[in-house]
Amino acid sequence: MQRRKFIDETLKKVRTLLLAPSLLTGACNKEEVVHSNDKTVIVIGAGISGLAAAQKLKEKGFNVIVLESQNKVGGRLRTNRSLGIAFDEGASWIHGINGNPITTLAQAAGMNTYETVDDQADSCYDIGGVLRSAAAYDKAEKELYTILDTMMKHGSAGQSFETVFNSLYPEKTKDRLWRFLLSTYVTFDTGDLNKLSSTLYNEGEEFSGVEKMATNGYDTIPNYLAKGLTIQLNQRVSKIDYSNPNIKVTHNGRESEADYIVVTVPLGVLKANTIQFTPALTSAKQTAIQKVGMNCVNKFLLTWNTAFWGNTHYICYTPESKDKFNYFVNINTFNPSANALMTFAYADYARKTETMTDAQVIGEIMSHLKDIYGTGIPTPVNMVRTQWQTNENSFGAYSYTAVGTEMRHFNDLAESINNKVFFAGEHTHIDYFSTAHGAYLSGLREAEKIIAL
Description:
- FAD binds at residues 49, 237.
- Its cofactor is FAD.
- One of its GO terms (biological process) is auxin biosynthetic process.
- It is an enzyme of class 1 (oxidoreductase).
- This protein has helices at residues 48-59, 101-109, 134-150, 161-168, 176-187, 220-225, 267-272, 283-291, 347-353, 358-373, 408-414, 436-452; strands spanning 40-44, 63-67, 79-80, 87-88, 93-94, 113-115, 124-126, 130-131, 212-214, 230-232, 237-241, 247-251, 254-258, 260-263, 276-278, 293-295, 297-303, 314-318, 324-330, 340-346, 382-385, 398-400, 421-423.
- The chain is an alpha/beta fold and 453 residues long.
- The protein has two domains: 21-29 and 37-114 and 212-291 and 406-452, FAD/NAD(P)-binding domain (3-Layer(bba) Sandwich), CATH 3.50.50; 117-204 and 295-385, Polyamine Oxidase, Chain A, domain 2 (Alpha-Beta Complex), CATH 3.90.660.10.
- The strands form six sheets. A seven-stranded mixed beta sheet has the order 8-7-18-19-20-17-21, sandwiched between helices. Strands 10-2-1-14-23 form a five-stranded parallel beta sheet, with helices on one face. It has a four-stranded mixed beta sheet with strand order 13-12-11-15, with no helix packed on it.
- It is globular and about 65 Å long.
- 49% of the residues are buried.
């Protein structure tokens, strides 16, 4: 899924659901008449999928209780403001604004956005601080998209993206620019290249239009969706017993009962098997949980007293190592007083950073910046970071099509059990997995299933 190359043609799939007024939930719809019923729904997880489901169900008169393991709503839509800057630890961008439900939702929630311009070719540095030719960058980028459009024809179900790419283009594996492109355009958007499916890496639909980045925090959306809901924070669910007509949910050592339950925990939590299901989940669902991959992307925000870099939105660096602090977002382009850069680590190197101290991480980041701008640049005064792989509320960043994944597995993850236990989250949306909009739409989908009953 190429999130930086949005097609301008109309998506082939019908968008009736996506464009429906119901996308703007009852958080701001005061005119609809609500008829209460005697059915209780427990939603596990106050991320965007859980909140979307809860709001829709509340609109239809259900008694809805949301259980959230963290101390605030949002799930992976988390914003850290400890440095006086809205640092989005999870999603930062609206990927394609045309027809995207997040576009309308962001406007209603008061989320400010900044259109990000793809100026990477103008600010890409090689080792030694050598500015790469924009023409050479553009040529390689264009060739990459051509390869991504066709390489799956040479892949097979048991081979990884990395294996097939290296066999077809061995000369590119030694090229630092190509390692950068594969890292930031493929690994960032999907998952570990040595585990990524060589036939399904390009699966998933995209919305057309420009990319927009949240500037005052992506958490404005979950905060908006949470209005009026009954949400119990710091409630970790350990068991779901749906063997009887009333479902029993164990959280923090006590039980709550419901007629229906919507499970919206991330795929990584399902993989970790931290929730006991009675009866056990279906074999199809257990297989899907095992086979679909879970990527790790960590983000790092650093601030300085003064900025020493230019005014392009993106700064790229092509080191020998892959997936390692090779891509910087210049926060000053939309917040001139910030003097901040945001950078990333992907896949195995992202996981490695979670074993490193702040000083070690800063040292590695600064080694790249010093190579670009010189050894005389100042040391950052602050840094905040994410650690998604070891975060017990996620165990990773988002799902992807790993070797062994079949597209039906996303539908298996979405399949409800006995019209009692329902599942939502980005990993349950076959078209928009790994995205905030996919998570949101999945929550609405499961709410509609319950309403239809």
